[in-house]
User: What shape does this take?
Amino acid sequence: MADSAHPIEVTVNGERREAVVLGRQLLVHWLRDSLGLKGTHIGCDSGNCGACTVICDGKAIKSCMQLAVQADGAEIETVESLSEPLGPPDALQASFTRHHALQCGYCTPGMLMSATALLRSCETPPGQDEIRRGLKGNVCRCTGYVNIVRAVQDVAGTLPDGHDPLAHDRPSGARSGQSPRTGGTAPGSAA
Ligand code: FES
Ligand code: FES
Assistant: This one.
């Protein structure tokens, strides 16, 4: 099984992909090495850090814990789906930038995808505790998490007044989930 080849069809970032993969190939390696989607990072290869998080059929998953063959028939979204390469960042990426929610940026793609899945799945805007629970599978060794949680809260519309140090720079529409036109590089877009 591990060395046998399997045909798969997977929709990745809206594009239908057909491939033949080895039974042992991890989804994260197929995304990065075969499709060139290197925004999905590898931190631990053992399900502990969350750097490899992608959205699979609407749910955030760790792509180092799934075989590529298991994704057959699925819809996968990676961090590259959040914005065009030279286009404006989406609301969450822009909020990460404004709140200084990243330093080295290695955890950022996984954080963005976990937060995106969380924001989509919540029936009511998530507050700080719910966001912290939603991101508990994602490790950041740089930021201390406070600004990451604030960035997500800002997009959710649950950031208390006075917690946005850059409020005067807020682009219109940032809280409404529209894509603010802030320019600059989208966090999580780099390899
Ligand atoms: Fe997948 Fe760390 S690389 S959880
Ligand atoms: Fe460096 Fe999170 S910003 S690990």
User: Anything to note?
Assistant: Residues 5-82 form a domain with the Ubiquitin-like (UB roll) fold (CATH 3.10.20.30). Strands lie at 5-12, 15-22, 53-56, 59-62, 75-77. Residues 28 and 63 are 5 Å apart (CA to CA). The pocket of FE2/S2 (inorganic) cluster (ligand 1) is lined by residues 42-45, 47-52, 62, 64 (CB under 6 Å).
